[in-house]
Amino acid sequence: MSASPTLGGASRCGWVLGPSLDKIIKNVAWRKHSQLVSASKSALDKLESLSDDPSDPASCSPLYGLSSSDADLLLQPLIAALESAYPKVVEPALDCAFRLFSFGLIRGCEIKEDASIIYRIVDSACKCAAIADEAIELAVLKVLLAAVRSPCNRILGDCLIYIVRSCYNVYLGGHSGTNQICAKAVLAQMMIIVFTRTQENSMHVDVKNVSVFELLEFADRNLNEGSSIHFAQTFINEIMECKDSPFMVKSPTELQNGSKASEEMPDEESRKSVDESADVSEYSTIREDGFMLFKNLCKLSMKFSSQESSDDQILLRGKTLSLELLNVVMGNAGPIWRTNERFLNAVKQYLCLSLLKNSGQSVMSIFQLLCSIFWNLLLKFRSGLKSEIGIFFPMLILRVLENVLQPSFLQKMTVLSLLEKISQDPQIVIDIFVNYDCDVDAPNIFERSVNGLLKTALGPPPGSVSSLSPIQDMTFRHESVKCLVRIIKSMGSWMDQQLKVGEYNPTKTSDNENMVESPNYHNDDATNADFELHPEANSEIYDAATLEQRRAHKLEIQKGTALFNRKPSKGIEFLIKAKKVGSSPEEVAHFLKTTSGLNESMIGDYFGEREEFPMKVMHAYVDSFNFEKMGFGEAIRFFLRGFRLPGEAQKIDRIMEKFAERYCKCNPNSFTSADTAYVLAYSVIMLNTDAHNSMVKDKMTKADFIRNNRGIDDGKDLSEDYLGTLYDHIVKNEIKMKPDPSAPQSKQGNSLNKLLGLDGILNLVWKQPEEKALGANGYLLKHIQEQFKAKSAKSEVVYHAVADPAILRFMVEVCWGPMLAAFSVTLDQSDDKEATSQCLQGFRNAVHVTAVMGMQTQRDAFVTTVAKFTYLHCAADMKQKNVDAVKAIISIAIEDGNNLQESWEHILTCLSRFENLQLLGEGAPSDSSFLNTSNSEHDDVTLRNVNYPSLKRKGTLQNPAVMAVVRGGSYDSTSLGKNTPGLVSPEQINHFISNLYLLDQIGNFELNHIFAHSQRLNSEAIVSFVTALCKVSMLELQSPTDPRVFSLTKLVEVAHYNMNRIRLVWSRIWSVLSDFFVAVGLSENLSVAIFVMDSLRQLAMKFLEREELANYNFQNEFLIPFAVVMQKSNSTEIRELIVRCISQMVLSRVGNIKSGWKSVFTVFTAAAADERKSIVLLAFETMEKIVREYFPYITETEALIFTDCVKCLITFTNSKFNSDVSLNAIAFLRFCAVKLADGGLVCREKSKEDDSCSQGLNENAADSQTCTDKDDYVANFWIPLLSGLSKLTSDPRAAIRKGALEVLFNILKDHGQLFTQPFWANVFNCAIFPIFRISVDIKDSGPLHPEGNVWDSETSIVAAECLIDLFVHFFDMVRTQMHGVVSILVGFMKSPGQGPSSAAVAALMRLANDLGSKLSEDEWQDIVLCLKEAAGSSLPEFAKLLKTMDSIEIPDVSQPDNEMELSTGRGVNNDGSEDNNENLQTVAYIVSRMKVHINIQLLVIQVVTDIYKIHWKSLSPNIVTTVLGIFSSTSSHSHDLNTQTSLLLKLDRACSMLEISGPPLVHFENESYKSYLNFLHDLLVNSPSLSQEKNVEGELVSVCKQVLQTYLGCSGFEYVSQDKPRANCVLPLGSAKKEELAARTPLVLSVMRILGSLERDSFRRHVSQLFPLLVGLVRSEHSSMEVQRVLSSIFQSCIGPLVCK
Asked: Which of 1036, 981, 980, 989 is nearest to 875 (CA)?
């Protein structure tokens, strides 16, 4: 305006009114509107005389600073102008009204529908909208918005609704699209203003401006006329930002006086005025107005078109606008909506009902608005609307999501967009799963959403018909994958937040994708406010264990429900057994009545069964209904709504019978009896079927129905009016049962309906005409509303919150399969960069969640899939997405390395293959070029001679390495293309080379970073990492065509990186590495084995730089791989390398080696037994240096090290290459003994440990017995050395054997004085007795000969001499070992060789001679008993030999014609008999064993005889008795052998045939009797008293008699007793008899001389027995004349005197 600022007077109102009234006067038609002109001029004149009231300018007057009367006068022209309907007049009037409201000049008023001046202004402004002028419409919108915006006035409910309706009409009937957009924006801004004030319960609030662009998101984009959106936004901003008038300049007087009238005074004063006049009730009026406005918007959104105007676009636009405004309200809803029960109930009662009614609209904008409103409800109201969300989520989202074949593109895109928003909020995702998927009464929203997204991602099934274009289908797939990615990412974010792992993990790589920005009201604060600002809500904090139980309970119920729907009885049985349902009929009936998802037909069938329990359940079910005061038709309808009657008449009969009984019980006066109700119920069922079944042509009439029911009431008729009314009710309103699940519908939709109980809802919503009223289904809508109210009122509806990350395990179990399938299929089929990037991001997030939660199976599945999609195993087919997969693998390794465990193997396999491709691309030679395998020498030469130019520079190259990679292979194959023959084409190689350029996107830094990053892995992760790296390296090295060392090299690097970890962790790492180094060290590929051994040496050298404390064993564990490989390797080069490595370590790190000595000596022990002389000499050289120079180091830790040293030296003594080495080793053993004897080692050990002894040996514990602690301690050092020398005495080399014996016994003899008696016992048991293979633990010790012919006679003699020498020398200390020593000597006597036997006899005699005077009676007795045992021990075996000999048939060879010819080594061959040959071989063995046996018996007799002759004075009677027994038994045994004629004959034949000498049986008998006779004679002479006691004389005569009888029998004359006379036939003696007679002659001579030496009296006593024998001697033939001479002497000296006397 160009009017003067002073126009209108000095008042502020005049500054606004004056110019406007002046303009009205100028524009108005004076004649037509004379009154308006007159009023305007009067007002101008009045303004000139008015000024602001200085005392109270903000008094309660409509206009600021003016009285009420003046205000009425001034505003009347303005109202008249508005009512003039003349645009040129209306426009300035509207502008004036706008300014009055905007500047706060109209203030302190409650604007409501009354006659007040301000309401008239508002009303007039609203009516101006009817003027067909665009500018007027905009001006009206400005005035109305300014009025609502003004904090100085309160617009009460009806007036507020009137204003909104006026703007609503402008929107619907605006003359331009711009005006309609502005009207919508004004309405949205009003909603923000009103409900912000409602939230704060105050007029003075900060209000944000509406975004017009966002407002047009769902509808009215077509109204945009170029810059309409920008214009509307500016329009709104100007109204909202208009606070000060540009014309409110200060008066000249104020400027001159320096008065600073505050420009904010009107607003401040008005605020003060309002605040002071306001009270609590007035503040509640603000919220009441907001509540009423919200309610009216909801009702407005539920208006539907009538049947007459089904295509009412105006109504549709109004509905859409209402929903948009509701969306704005919900989008800006504050905590009051959740904390105030009335507002929350309004949402449940009105908004949810609006969503329900409008969900049947097919208009896309309405559906989008419904989704947006639902999003706001889910975002902010989910704790209070749990049940409602559980109904709307499947109805709005899942229904569309699961429609794969015939979806609406825009509708499904809207749903996918909504799901993307939902999935971006981690807390919402978790809450959905916790409150629905874990709630038995709620649908599985999370599970179904994930499965629906999977179906969308996979697209329509093959062969199906779809309405989608390929582009639309691809868009759906990508969007669904994006949603799945968001879901798993949100799960990971929530998990990180709960576990606080984000601050410990490295920052993840940022996503290279366009993230959807959430609107301002979708921030985290708004989301979390659902919990923080609603403390009184029914919410509980649950832990994962409780939710697991709830989830398991729900799954059990679902399983039981599914089983019931197939076999009802089985389902009930399962549920009762699982304790999900009580076992009583009442509890089962309650379950069937209240549980959703049950098949109604199956319930009916179950009720109709004949079994007792189902019938009881049916009765309990019917009894649960209360039919009191309920009409029969209504009762039966109510009864049948829960199940479907079975088809069998008998089943229906049982159900209706029970129903009739229950109805009559509830209504006793209804019918005469229950029979009436029963018949009528049947009739009603038949009528319902007849009336509503389209297959029935002739319908039942009312008369028919009445006639059919005559006489049913106990013979009487029911009232026709009653039956007619019942008929009408059934015909008009079908008794509807829930649809049969067998009806053709989608399985998921059916399960959804049953789960929610929404079968009727969906019939109502989705089968209605698009814009028609609900009509006949209104009752169903009412029923659903009642359900909403009932669910809202339920106190048990609890919203669960959880903070335990373990809940993610159950979520992953639900979603991992669909996600894996969706990501895999999309990644495989799509080359779209954004889609593949999304899939890889999904894989990364899935691995993160599953890894942290420890879900091994799921984690491995995701990692394996990504690894396969790298296509590194078939690089010729790689694309950019495969390179991105490699990047994803690297990111996974860095970000989630601590939780990958076994999945590391797949990642490291990919890295190995990637490095191989890099090398090929750079032209570097493959590892196989220097790893000379033994498989194909030709290929090796080829590879070594090939020039490897860069593939990227040169193009093609036909070499085996490249061709193998180009051929490719499966992911699990260890060698690429090895089974595919033939060359590849140049085109294939060029394609492969072009793919190598893609790999340049990944540098070596990223590759190596994973291995360097291993230092940051935790203790468990590093072990898993090393284990996997070992497996991958093993696969590389085992490749038969292209062995590689990449992973082996990295393994060494990783070991270096992690060597400084604590010992507990490093020990676990090395346990894995040790096994790996051993396995690779034993590889057949020599180069690989050398490489790994050298790597192990480097690690060992570095590790030995660290000092080890005493009594630790880790050095030994570290060096064990050297020892194992040394023991098992077949490669000479490897073994020699190990010896050199160990030698180097010992010489350079000898001061730091502690427990490592054990492995050092193990290696040298294996080297000492090596077959290569160079290795033995090399090892012994180092060993010699160790013993000579570093001996104190090996003994400063523990005794076991000294034991290992001794064992090593002993092994060197067994070296077969150089006797000098063996002898030197034996000398070193003596040196060790000297060191021990000096006491240095023992003193050091004692200083370390105050205990009396240390623990026993590992290897020699079995050889030693328990001794005292002190002796056990000493044994730790001495016993290994002595035992080693003891074992060395069995060496096959005489020099070594003899040297070991001498050193052993010299050591014992030189240092034996240091040993205690118990320790000597230990020495004998561990070192001495094992030499002679004697076990002193066995009382009945027998001969155990040394193995083979190891010991010659000389060694045996030396051993026996040394043993006796040592025993005699230390007799006082070792006399307890007498039995063992004597047993050893006796054992030598039993040996078949002459040398050992003689040595044993000599040793035993020395023992007796040197110690005779020191031996006690018990010790003598022990010696004699050992000899007796030696004589008798072989008798059982000998008896078996004789028995065997007796069973053998030897052919008669007495006839010359049948004389057998022998063939050397082949036995009898005259008739080719195999049996005779075997028999003769057996006889040969028997003869040899008989000779050994006879020799043993003779040696025993010799020793006993010698001992008695020398020490007879020291022998007690008991001992003499034992000796007597030995002689007696031996003599008897020898005599018995010679009396077995058949045996002797067989032996003679066999020996003749075998041409061997027979056993000396006669000699054995002669020597036995000779010794026996001499012993008896000596005893008779030397011990008369003992002889008399033992009747030695009688025994002597008896033996003589026996000998003479034997002799006579041999000479052909047998002794004939007087009792039994025999006739003897004397025959000439044969040659054999003559030889035997000659052999027996010396014994007979000895007998006759002993008899001749008897005293006369003694001879006289026995002459009667002897005389016949002597006479026989006279008669017999003799081989020697000496017999006759001695016989003649006996007759002369003994018999003659007796006869003469």
From this structure: 989
Contact of 80 with 36, CB cutoff 8 Å: yes
Phi-psi label, residue 1613: left if phi above 0, alpha if psi -120 to 50, beta otherwise? beta
Cα angle 1694, 1696, 1701; round to 5: 105
DSSP 1629: -
Longest dimension (CA), the chain: 214
1042 Cβ neighbours under 8 A, 6+ residues apart: 926, 927, 928, 960, 961, 964, 975, 976
| Residues 381, 379: Cα–Cα separation, whole Å | 6
pLDDT in tens, 1452-1509: 655 444 444 433 343 444 444 566 777 777 877 777 777 777 777 777 777 777 777 7
User: CB atoms < 10 A from the CB of 838, how many?
Assistant: 25
Q: Residue 1143 and residue 1179: Cα distance in Å, rounded?
A: 8
For residues 998 and 884, the answer to whether their CB atoms sit within 8 Å is no
Nearest to 159 by CA among 126, 207, 195, 182: 126
Nearest-angstrom CA–CA distance, 1272 and 1260? 12
Helices vs. strands in the chain: H and E counts, helices first: 79, 6
Neighbour tally for 1282: CB within 10 Å: 24
DSSP state of 1053: H
Find out whether 1649 and 1693 touch, Cβ atoms under 8 Å: no
1212 neighbors 1201 (Cβ within 8 angstroms): no
- Alpha-carbon torsion angle 1140, 1145, 1150, 1153, nearest 10: -120
Query: Tell me, what's the pLDDT at 114?
Result: 65
Counting Cα atoms < 13 Å in the Cβ hemisphere of 1489 gives 17
Phi, psi of 1130 (to 5 degrees): -95, 0
Eight-class DSSP state of 6: T
pLDDT 10s digits, 1336-1377: 333 333 333 333 344 666 677 777 778 878 777 787 777 777
Residue 1668: Cβ-neighbour burial (10 angstroms; 0-12, 13-18, 19+):
middle
What's the whole-number mean pLDDT along residues 274-285?
A: 47
Of the pLDDT bands very low, low, confident and very high (cuts 50, 70, 90), residue 110 is: confident
Residue in this structure with the two tokens 């020395």, named with its chain if needed:
1406
Distance CA 249, CA 251 (A): 6
Residues designated as active site? 648
Strands 1467-1468 and 1462-1463 come out as: antiparallel
* Token pair belonging to 698: 């002739």
Q: What are phi and psi of 801, to 5 degrees?
A: -120, 150
Rounded (to 5) percent helix, strand, coil in the chain: 70, 0, 30
Q: Name the token pair of 105.
A: 């000049």
Cα separations (Å) of 545 from 492, 808, 1171, 1300?
20, 12, 65, 73
Nearest to 672 by CA among 728, 719, 628: 719
Q: For residue 233, which amino acid is it?
A: Q
Average pLDDT, integer, range 1273-1282? 70
Whole-prediction pTM: 0.68
- Surface-to-core class of residue 164, CB atoms within 10 Å of its CB (0-12 exposed, 13-18 middle, 19+ buried): buried
Nearest to 321 by CA among 333, 313, 309: 313
Spell out the long-range contacts of 1620-1629 with Cβ–Cβ below 8 A and sequence spacing 24 or more.
Answer: 1629/1677
> By three-state DSSP, how is residue 1187 classified?
helix
Query: Residue 1094 is encoded by which pair of tokens?
Result: 């050298």
Q: Which helix (H) or strand (E) holds 155?
A: strand 153-155
Apex 890 CA angle, 884 and 891, nearest 5 = 90
Q: Tell me if residue 802 falls in helix, strand or coil.
A: strand
Rounded-to-integer distance, Cα 1368 and Cα 1407, Å: 7
